[in-house]
Amino acid sequence: METRSIGKLDASVVGLGCNNFGGRIDEAATTRVVGAALDAGITLFDTADIYGGTRSEEYLGRALGARRDEAIIATKFGGPIDDERKGGASAQYIERAVEDSLQRLGTDRIDLYQLHFPDAATPFDETLGALDRLVRAGKVLEIGASNFSADQIDETARISADNGFARFVSVQNEYSLLRRGPERFGVLDACARNGLVFIPYFPLASGVLTGKYRRNEAPPEGTRLAGMPAERLDDALSEKVFDRVEALDAFATEHGHTLLELAIAWLLARPTVASVIAGATKPEQARANAAAAAWALTDADLREIDARIDAAKAG
User: Fold this and answer.
1) In angstroms, rounded to a whole number, what is the distance separating the alpha carbons of residues 222 and 201?
2) Model pLDDT for residues 219-237, shown as the tens digit of each residue
3) How many CB atoms lie within 10 A of CB 63?
4) Read out DSSP for 74-105?
5) Which residues contact 36 (CB under 8 A, 6 or more apart)?
6) Residue 128 and residue 125: Cα distance in Å, rounded?
7) What one-character DSSP code corresponds to residue 218?
8) Stretch (H or E) spanning 15
9) pTM for this one?
10) What are phi and psi of 72, to 5 degrees?
11) How many DSSP H helices and E strands does the chain contain?
12) Is 51 among the residues known to form the active site?
Protein backbone atom coordinates (compact mmCIF):
# COMPACT_ATOMS: atom_id res chain seq x y z
CA MET A 1 0.00 0.00 0.00
CA GLU A 2 1.11 3.58 -0.67
CA THR A 3 2.43 5.48 2.33
CA ARG A 4 2.49 9.16 3.26
CA SER A 5 4.41 11.05 5.91
CA ILE A 6 3.09 12.06 9.32
CA GLY A 7 6.10 13.94 10.58
CA LYS A 8 8.89 11.37 10.47
CA LEU A 9 6.42 8.47 10.46
CA ASP A 10 5.71 6.64 7.21
CA ALA A 11 2.06 5.62 7.44
CA SER A 12 -0.21 3.59 5.19
CA VAL A 13 -2.71 5.80 3.37
CA VAL A 14 -5.53 3.77 4.89
CA GLY A 15 -5.40 3.29 8.64
CA LEU A 16 -7.54 1.37 11.09
CA GLY A 17 -9.74 3.22 13.54
CA CYS A 18 -9.83 1.24 16.78
CA ASN A 19 -12.81 2.82 18.55
CA ASN A 20 -14.82 -0.41 18.17
CA PHE A 21 -12.32 -2.42 20.22
CA GLY A 22 -13.59 -3.20 23.70
CA GLY A 23 -16.99 -1.78 22.84
CA ARG A 24 -18.70 -3.20 19.80
CA ILE A 25 -16.26 -6.12 19.51
CA ASP A 26 -14.43 -8.27 22.06
CA GLU A 27 -10.74 -9.17 22.27
CA ALA A 28 -10.91 -12.22 20.03
CA ALA A 29 -12.65 -10.25 17.27
CA THR A 30 -10.16 -7.40 17.74
CA THR A 31 -7.27 -9.80 17.20
CA ARG A 32 -8.80 -11.04 13.95
CA VAL A 33 -9.39 -7.50 12.65
CA VAL A 34 -5.88 -6.32 13.54
CA GLY A 35 -4.29 -9.36 11.88
CA ALA A 36 -6.31 -8.84 8.71
CA ALA A 37 -5.39 -5.14 8.64
CA LEU A 38 -1.67 -5.86 8.96
CA ASP A 39 -1.86 -8.53 6.25
CA ALA A 40 -3.63 -6.04 3.96
CA GLY A 41 -0.82 -3.51 4.31
CA ILE A 42 -2.36 -1.24 6.95
CA THR A 43 0.28 0.12 9.33
CA LEU A 44 -1.51 3.01 11.10
CA PHE A 45 -3.67 1.99 14.07
CA ASP A 46 -5.54 4.85 15.72
CA THR A 47 -6.99 4.45 19.20
CA ALA A 48 -7.55 6.53 22.36
CA ASP A 49 -7.38 5.97 26.09
CA ILE A 50 -11.14 6.48 26.41
CA TYR A 51 -12.15 3.98 23.71
CA GLY A 52 -13.83 0.90 25.11
CA GLY A 53 -13.29 2.16 28.64
CA THR A 54 -9.49 1.82 28.11
CA ARG A 55 -9.89 -1.70 26.68
CA SER A 56 -9.18 -0.58 23.10
CA GLU A 57 -5.55 0.17 23.94
CA GLU A 58 -5.22 -3.11 25.86
CA TYR A 59 -6.72 -5.20 23.09
CA LEU A 60 -4.71 -3.44 20.38
CA GLY A 61 -1.43 -3.93 22.22
CA ARG A 62 -2.03 -7.63 22.72
CA ALA A 63 -3.33 -8.11 19.16
CA LEU A 64 -0.17 -6.56 17.70
CA GLY A 65 2.02 -8.68 19.94
CA ALA A 66 5.21 -9.72 18.15
CA ARG A 67 4.16 -7.62 15.13
CA ARG A 68 4.38 -4.37 17.11
CA ASP A 69 7.19 -3.01 14.93
CA GLU A 70 5.05 -3.41 11.79
CA ALA A 71 2.60 -0.87 13.21
CA ILE A 72 2.40 2.84 13.85
CA ILE A 73 0.43 3.24 17.05
CA ALA A 74 -1.51 6.50 17.32
CA THR A 75 -3.40 7.09 20.53
CA LYS A 76 -5.05 10.07 22.19
CA PHE A 77 -5.35 11.56 25.66
CA GLY A 78 -7.45 14.27 27.24
CA GLY A 79 -10.94 12.80 27.31
CA PRO A 80 -12.52 11.85 30.66
CA ILE A 81 -12.01 8.21 31.65
CA ASP A 82 -13.61 8.05 35.10
CA ASP A 83 -14.25 10.14 38.21
CA GLU A 84 -10.56 10.15 39.08
CA ARG A 85 -9.10 10.55 35.60
CA LYS A 86 -11.16 13.47 34.41
CA GLY A 87 -9.05 14.29 31.37
CA GLY A 88 -7.61 17.56 30.21
CA ALA A 89 -4.21 18.64 28.93
CA SER A 90 -2.33 19.84 31.99
CA ALA A 91 1.29 18.79 32.38
CA GLN A 92 0.44 16.75 35.45
CA TYR A 93 -2.36 14.88 33.69
CA ILE A 94 -0.25 14.21 30.60
CA GLU A 95 2.51 12.65 32.72
CA ARG A 96 0.06 10.12 34.11
CA ALA A 97 -1.91 9.58 30.91
CA VAL A 98 1.11 8.64 28.81
CA GLU A 99 2.38 6.11 31.34
CA ASP A 100 -1.06 4.52 31.56
CA SER A 101 -1.31 4.27 27.77
CA LEU A 102 2.19 2.81 27.43
CA GLN A 103 1.32 0.15 29.97
CA ARG A 104 -2.02 -0.73 28.37
CA LEU A 105 -0.45 -0.89 24.91
CA GLY A 106 2.46 -2.97 26.15
CA THR A 107 5.01 -0.84 24.34
CA ASP A 108 7.96 1.42 25.12
CA ARG A 109 6.87 4.27 22.86
CA ILE A 110 3.82 5.84 21.27
CA ASP A 111 4.39 6.73 17.64
CA LEU A 112 1.78 9.51 17.42
CA TYR A 113 0.40 10.96 20.68
CA GLN A 114 -2.61 13.20 20.09
CA LEU A 115 -4.51 15.68 22.25
CA HIS A 116 -8.06 14.38 21.83
CA PHE A 117 -9.85 17.67 22.55
CA PRO A 118 -8.67 21.23 23.20
CA ASP A 119 -8.58 21.99 26.94
CA ALA A 120 -9.77 25.53 27.62
CA ALA A 121 -8.56 25.30 31.23
CA THR A 122 -4.91 24.71 30.30
CA PRO A 123 -2.71 27.11 28.31
CA PHE A 124 -1.32 25.62 25.14
CA ASP A 125 2.24 26.42 26.17
CA GLU A 126 1.87 24.15 29.23
CA THR A 127 0.49 21.32 27.12
CA LEU A 128 3.12 21.68 24.41
CA GLY A 129 5.91 21.92 26.98
CA ALA A 130 4.79 18.65 28.57
CA LEU A 131 4.52 16.93 25.20
CA ASP A 132 7.95 18.24 24.22
CA ARG A 133 9.44 16.55 27.29
CA LEU A 134 7.85 13.25 26.26
CA VAL A 135 9.37 13.54 22.78
CA ARG A 136 12.80 14.35 24.21
CA ALA A 137 12.51 11.35 26.54
CA GLY A 138 11.69 9.05 23.61
CA LYS A 139 8.34 7.99 25.03
CA VAL A 140 6.56 9.69 22.11
CA LEU A 141 7.86 10.03 18.56
CA GLU A 142 5.43 12.61 17.13
CA ILE A 143 2.55 14.65 18.51
CA GLY A 144 -0.77 15.62 17.00
CA ALA A 145 -4.06 17.32 17.77
CA SER A 146 -7.69 16.37 17.29
CA ASN A 147 -10.87 18.43 16.99
CA PHE A 148 -8.89 21.65 16.55
CA SER A 149 -10.06 24.84 14.83
CA ALA A 150 -7.99 26.75 12.29
CA ASP A 151 -7.16 29.40 14.91
CA GLN A 152 -5.97 26.73 17.37
CA ILE A 153 -3.74 25.19 14.71
CA ASP A 154 -2.18 28.59 14.03
CA GLU A 155 -1.75 29.37 17.73
CA THR A 156 -0.10 26.08 18.67
CA ALA A 157 2.24 26.24 15.66
CA ARG A 158 3.37 29.70 16.77
CA ILE A 159 3.90 28.63 20.40
CA SER A 160 6.01 25.64 19.36
CA ALA A 161 8.13 27.78 17.04
CA ASP A 162 8.62 30.54 19.63
CA ASN A 163 9.66 28.11 22.39
CA GLY A 164 11.52 25.45 20.44
CA PHE A 165 8.95 22.83 21.44
CA ALA A 166 8.07 19.74 19.46
CA ARG A 167 5.25 20.74 17.14
CA PHE A 168 2.01 19.12 16.21
CA VAL A 169 2.51 17.29 12.92
CA SER A 170 -1.11 16.29 12.35
CA VAL A 171 -4.71 17.26 13.00
CA GLN A 172 -7.50 14.71 13.21
CA ASN A 173 -11.03 16.04 12.68
CA GLU A 174 -14.22 14.66 11.20
CA TYR A 175 -14.23 14.88 7.40
CA SER A 176 -16.08 13.00 4.69
CA LEU A 177 -17.97 13.46 1.45
CA LEU A 178 -21.02 14.28 3.57
CA ARG A 179 -19.34 16.40 6.25
CA ARG A 180 -16.91 18.89 4.77
CA GLY A 181 -16.41 21.27 7.68
CA PRO A 182 -12.58 21.25 7.47
CA GLU A 183 -12.92 22.84 4.03
CA ARG A 184 -15.54 25.42 5.02
CA PHE A 185 -13.91 26.49 8.29
CA GLY A 186 -10.33 26.77 7.08
CA VAL A 187 -8.86 23.77 8.93
CA LEU A 188 -7.30 22.26 5.80
CA ASP A 189 -5.85 25.64 4.87
CA ALA A 190 -4.42 26.06 8.38
CA CYS A 191 -2.79 22.64 8.16
CA ALA A 192 -1.25 23.50 4.80
CA ARG A 193 0.21 26.85 5.86
CA ASN A 194 1.67 25.37 9.06
CA GLY A 195 3.05 22.18 7.50
CA LEU A 196 0.67 19.76 9.22
CA VAL A 197 -1.06 16.80 7.64
CA PHE A 198 -4.73 16.00 8.10
CA ILE A 199 -6.17 12.67 9.30
CA PRO A 200 -9.94 12.44 8.76
CA TYR A 201 -12.05 10.45 11.18
CA PHE A 202 -15.56 9.12 10.42
CA PRO A 203 -14.58 8.99 6.72
CA LEU A 204 -17.59 6.78 6.03
CA ALA A 205 -19.97 9.08 7.93
CA SER A 206 -20.70 6.43 10.59
CA GLY A 207 -21.34 3.87 7.87
CA VAL A 208 -23.72 5.99 5.76
CA LEU A 209 -21.14 5.93 2.93
CA THR A 210 -20.96 2.13 2.90
CA GLY A 211 -24.47 1.71 1.50
CA LYS A 212 -25.65 -0.34 4.49
CA TYR A 213 -28.50 2.09 5.26
CA ARG A 214 -31.58 2.34 3.08
CA ARG A 215 -34.09 5.12 2.61
CA ASN A 216 -37.24 4.69 4.75
CA GLU A 217 -35.77 1.65 6.53
CA ALA A 218 -34.60 1.34 10.14
CA PRO A 219 -30.83 0.97 10.59
CA PRO A 220 -29.79 -2.71 10.61
CA GLU A 221 -29.32 -4.17 14.07
CA GLY A 222 -25.77 -3.91 15.36
CA THR A 223 -24.79 -0.94 13.18
CA ARG A 224 -23.38 2.26 14.62
CA LEU A 225 -26.57 4.24 13.98
CA ALA A 226 -28.95 1.59 15.32
CA GLY A 227 -28.80 2.92 18.86
CA MET A 228 -28.78 6.61 17.98
CA PRO A 229 -31.50 8.85 19.48
CA ALA A 230 -34.36 9.53 17.07
CA GLU A 231 -33.62 13.24 16.62
CA ARG A 232 -29.98 12.56 15.70
CA LEU A 233 -30.95 9.66 13.48
CA ASP A 234 -33.35 11.89 11.54
CA ASP A 235 -30.44 14.23 10.79
CA ALA A 236 -27.94 11.46 9.93
CA LEU A 237 -30.40 9.69 7.62
CA SER A 238 -32.45 12.56 6.25
CA GLU A 239 -33.96 12.61 2.79
CA LYS A 240 -31.30 15.10 1.65
CA VAL A 241 -28.55 12.80 2.91
CA PHE A 242 -29.98 9.89 0.94
CA ASP A 243 -30.26 12.10 -2.16
CA ARG A 244 -26.51 12.73 -1.97
CA VAL A 245 -25.64 9.14 -1.07
CA GLU A 246 -27.61 7.78 -4.01
CA ALA A 247 -25.95 10.26 -6.38
CA LEU A 248 -22.51 9.25 -5.12
CA ASP A 249 -23.35 5.56 -5.29
CA ALA A 250 -24.37 5.97 -8.92
CA PHE A 251 -21.03 7.65 -9.73
CA ALA A 252 -19.10 4.84 -8.04
CA THR A 253 -21.08 2.14 -9.83
CA GLU A 254 -20.54 3.81 -13.21
CA HIS A 255 -16.79 3.64 -12.57
CA GLY A 256 -16.81 0.02 -11.44
CA HIS A 257 -16.33 0.76 -7.75
CA THR A 258 -18.28 0.71 -4.51
CA LEU A 259 -19.56 3.67 -2.53
CA LEU A 260 -17.07 2.83 0.25
CA GLU A 261 -14.20 2.91 -2.23
CA LEU A 262 -15.35 6.30 -3.48
CA ALA A 263 -15.52 7.72 0.06
CA ILE A 264 -11.94 6.72 0.83
CA ALA A 265 -10.51 7.54 -2.61
CA TRP A 266 -12.07 11.02 -2.47
CA LEU A 267 -10.35 11.79 0.82
CA LEU A 268 -7.02 10.49 -0.46
CA ALA A 269 -7.32 12.88 -3.39
CA ARG A 270 -7.08 15.82 -0.97
CA PRO A 271 -3.40 16.86 -0.87
CA THR A 272 -3.34 17.55 2.89
CA VAL A 273 -4.72 14.12 3.86
CA ALA A 274 -2.06 11.66 5.04
CA SER A 275 -4.16 8.64 6.02
CA VAL A 276 -7.84 7.76 6.17
CA ILE A 277 -8.72 5.93 9.38
CA ALA A 278 -11.81 3.77 8.97
CA GLY A 279 -13.16 1.46 11.64
CA ALA A 280 -13.84 -2.24 11.21
CA THR A 281 -15.58 -4.90 13.25
CA LYS A 282 -14.79 -7.77 10.88
CA PRO A 283 -11.64 -8.78 8.98
CA GLU A 284 -13.37 -8.41 5.62
CA GLN A 285 -14.15 -4.78 6.43
CA ALA A 286 -10.50 -4.05 7.14
CA ARG A 287 -9.54 -5.67 3.84
CA ALA A 288 -12.19 -3.68 1.93
CA ASN A 289 -10.99 -0.42 3.46
CA ALA A 290 -7.40 -1.21 2.46
CA ALA A 291 -8.40 -2.09 -1.11
CA ALA A 292 -10.08 1.30 -1.57
CA ALA A 293 -6.68 2.99 -1.70
CA ALA A 294 -6.13 1.59 -5.19
CA TRP A 295 -8.63 4.00 -6.84
CA ALA A 296 -6.96 7.27 -7.84
CA LEU A 297 -9.52 9.93 -8.73
CA THR A 298 -8.70 12.48 -11.43
CA ASP A 299 -9.37 16.22 -11.26
CA ALA A 300 -12.24 15.65 -13.70
CA ASP A 301 -13.66 13.00 -11.37
CA LEU A 302 -13.52 15.41 -8.43
CA ARG A 303 -15.35 18.11 -10.38
CA GLU A 304 -18.02 15.63 -11.44
CA ILE A 305 -18.46 14.43 -7.85
CA ASP A 306 -18.98 17.99 -6.62
CA ALA A 307 -21.43 18.64 -9.44
CA ARG A 308 -23.50 15.60 -8.49
CA ILE A 309 -23.51 16.54 -4.82
CA ASP A 310 -24.61 20.08 -5.70
CA ALA A 311 -27.38 18.74 -7.94
CA ALA A 312 -28.58 16.42 -5.18
CA LYS A 313 -28.60 19.29 -2.67
CA ALA A 314 -30.55 21.48 -5.08
CA GLY A 315 -33.07 18.73 -5.66
Assistant:
1) 20
2) 777 677 777 776 677 677 8
3) 24
4) EEEE-S--SSS------HHHHHHHHHHHHHHH
5) 280, 283, 284, 286, 287
6) 5
7) P
8) strand 14-17
9) 0.94
10) -105, 115
11) 12, 10
12) yes
